[in-house]
């Protein structure tokens, strides 16, 4: 496949000067520790040039930036906006950072920010957000008005889709972005669709200027291949490695291993609208039958921890500290099934002439098929007959969206944006993007109230109560927390894992 070259944007001649500076950088004329270094990163996830279509890689590599960033405590923090305030229930004002230029040499001002944000607000990704207007109210001030009070707005403006692009990079119509010209410490250079992306150092960056010259991102879907490329010196960083590799990697020479816990969970979602999981007792029975400790200690090599709720307490205070989760209690599971009318026999339980036979779907990533097989065995011990079907992710979503399922195993990042409003996407009766069909009027009210409140403690109380209710009613069974496994060569220094994976922090790394 031929390389897609760096594209010139005709509407901005300043980009030509930027390309000239990039040529100087490539010639090795720049000084500093690691000035000639090219850091190569392997990951299973694809990349794209448009922030509205798979733009997470652009953000993580430091090419694009947003008004709001995510700090090391997984909270919203100043980014391209140095500050923001809520003027009234519906209006927010963002103060832009002074002295910032896009990669094409254009200055970041309110007009440029508004043009980019309006494209974001009109996108499918932001369709459910109550944004009414986005206007420039000064050279460096932007005001956003919402249709209803909406406390999570700053967190949503930290999302990958909300990064700011130069006006010259924005398509004239509904087309895709050809070149992501933003403000980050690295500048988009070239792209092989489905294969590679390269970025070079931005020597005009307003913040910490990288010591490395460039970064190459390579899509390597196979876990073993990513590891081999790292060990063979073809990568400096291999990301999203399986837990079973940790011990051997840690014993290898010249390799450093990072295992940060991130706000991601694995879970089992039930179809609460049809038998047998329309009965909360059966859902709780399934959850009590699952031995999470066995899953994390054996299948996941002790790298991940059992989940008690939607958020890991070690990462964020949004986690309810009073949750005890569902411990492995097969006797309790059998009792609940008996209460629900499922009679024990020689093997599979029965009720009204039917058997307790169910089917779970999952997809081949994040060790989910292995976990599904283990759960199949564990539920079988209390009287379930479980069939597991593993398929491609989109096929699984198509299947469960049609309602033809009993349960499915999946994995979600819980702070994809740094706010527990994510719980509405899990449990609100009309806004959930999970397919469990769960409805609870009290949960809806709490989520809607928390979305409107400004006071953090008032929001915290409501989100904690939501977590307690859904643990008891079990529309999903929380399975495990999630630990990212990242391995680097020992020559790569200064890498610090980010708690929500929103950036790799490549501006701080060095390469001997």
For this entry, give a set of tags.
22 strands, D-Maltodextrin-Binding Protein, domain 2, 2 domains, Dipeptide-binding Protein, domain 3, 14 helices, five-stranded mixed beta sheet, disordered N terminus, alpha+beta, 512 residues, single chain, globular
Protein model, in words:
By secondary structure, the chain is α+β, with helices and mostly antiparallel strands. The chain folds into two domains: about 15-235 and about 485-510, D-Maltodextrin-Binding Protein, domain 2; about 260-485, Dipeptide-binding Protein, domain 3. Helix content is about 25%, strand content about 20%. It has 14 helices and 22 strands. It has helices spanning about 15-25, 55-60, 110-120, 155, 225-230, 245-250, 280-290, 290-300, 330-340, 370-380, 395-400, 420-425, 440-450, 455-475, and strands spanning about 40-45, 70, 75-80, 80-85, 90-95, 130-140, 140-145, 185-190, 195-200, 215-220, 235-240, 255-260, 260-270, 350, 355, 355-365, 385-390, 405-415, 475-485, 485-490, 490-495, 510. Strands 8-9-10-1-11-20-12 form a seven-stranded mixed β-sheet. It has a five-stranded mixed β-sheet with strand order 17-16-18-13-19, sandwiched between helices. Strands 4-5-7-6 form a four-stranded antiparallel β-sheet, covered by helices on one side. The longest helix has 18 residues, at about 455-475.
